[in-house]
Amino acid sequence: MRVPGRPPRARRPLSRRHGPAVLGVAIALLTSACGGGAGGSASAGTAPVPAGERAAVAAQRLAENTVVPLEGDPPAPELPVTVDSSDGRKVTVEDTSRILPLNGGIAEIVFTLGLGDRVVGRDVTATFEEAKDLPLVTRAHDVGAESVLSLHPTVVLADTDTGPSEAIGQIRDAGVPVVVLDPATRLQDVTTRTTRVAEALGVPSAGEALNTRMRKEIADARASVPEGSRPRVAFLYMRGSAAVYLLGGKGSGADSLIEAAGAVDAGVGSGLDKPFTPITSEGLVAAGPDVILMMTKGLDSVGGIEGLVEIPGIAQTPAGMDRRVVDLEDGVLLSFGPRTPLVIDILVDRLHGA
């Protein structure tokens, strides 16, 4: 990642509100409404599926930690193709039989396009089930050129944050095409990146189909936003063991998701024009969040909700007073990939929930 008030009410964490019975009913209703299609999109002409039911289905799908490929046979790449790389190069791809995505969100796109059986390795951020047994070619977030080349990839997909640059250079010097993409930090980047990945792999029509599916899923999720509800939501990035405590602002990535879910990013609303700013009591009080949004590992690293409210300033916010905290798994929340519509489904429900 570029990386005094009322006593608290007794409240269960919003991120764990749905029990098995509710989930079973939700799945049945949502499946009926969407005609059994992937992604939980409501059919044209039907009333929007309630946010709670959509969120229950989305939570189950995220718990399964799998991707949903496009329907039909896998696409057949039409090669060679020459595409623009975000580091200023033009790259020609002649063979996609051994694909190596060096970013978890990009890997999700490749698998969802139907090309997962061609993927030969993974980055540490590719945490979904289909990729978990693939060889790991990164240490922390740094790419090892030797590990990459040992897998004999015919094309490598990276983003501008992938490094070190020396490793990328070694891979290119070995004759492997490396297509670099811009990082995805906004909701609209999901479809842009999907288009670019599909073009680089010679399957542009599959990219168009996936984008059509995702746009409909996101639109259906946003249709469930309750009228008149505009909670202020603060995204906190924390790693307690490393003493990292940051408040998200403009460009954090979470700001785009919060807006899509019909809420207001509290950091942006308080004037933060950088993606992340060190947390201060004054900054938190100025942000005044009704809800706090975090990654699950970040929340765990500070001792859960009870540990979180011990951090100076948290307990003085409306969210801290009410223990209104929503957390989502690290590898999904800011992945900006094909599972992002599920994230919007969950946020629409949990950010607006009582």
TrEMBL record:
PROSITE patterns: FE_B12_PBP (PS50983), PROKAR_LIPOPROTEIN (PS51257). It comes from the Bacteria. Pfam families: Peripla_BP_2 (PF01497). Residues 98-354 form the Fe/B12 periplasmic-binding domain. InterPro entries: ABC_Transporter_SBP, ABC_transptr_periplasmic_BD. Residues 67-88 are annotated as: Disordered. Belongs to the bacterial solute-binding protein 8 family. This is ABC transporter substrate-binding protein. It comes from Streptomyces glycanivorans. The lineage of its organism: Bacteria, Bacillati, Actinomycetota, Actinomycetes, Kitasatosporales.
